Amino acid sequence: QVQLVESGGGLVQPGGSLRLSCAASGSIDRFYVMGWYRQAPGNARELVADITSYGITNYADSSKGRFTISRDNAKNTVSLQMNSLKPEDTAVYYCSLRLPWQSSPDHWGQGTQVTVSS
Helices then strands (H, E): number in the chain? Predict the structure, then answer.
């Protein structure tokens, strides 16, 4: 049983920053790719960024240069530092786990709301 618990969402003004964190517990395979997805109302869930157990990162074009993903393998945590936030970043952000050969995650957190508004 795998459990993912996110924290750190909230309301921020355009141009501001937020840091999301996610703690994974349970049967965590050390090869899991940890990631962040987001879903805005009326939109499909989309990848924001993910990171392998070796620290190889992958970012959506919309995240590059503004967001930074990091993980602590010893603590089974993943974080997303979001800078220069825009109103279009408003969404529910989900922590995820997938094995390297899987095309999509099979474990999800409950989601945390990020709202960028003045």
Answer: 0, 11
| Share in percent of the chain as helix, strand, coil (round to 5) | 5, 50, 45
Q: What is the pLDDT along the chain (118 residues), one digit of tens a residue?
A: 899 999 999 999 999 999 999 999 998 888 999 999 999 999 999 999 999 999 999 999 999 999 999 999 999 999 999 999 999 999 999 999 999 999 999 999 999 999 999 9
CB atoms within 10 A of CB 10: 12
CA-closest candidate to residue 89, choices 102, 80, 79: 80
d(CA 57, CA 116): 25
Q: Which residues pair with 79 in a beta bridge?
A: 21, 70
* Secondary structure (DSSP) of 37-51: EEE-TTS--EEEEEE
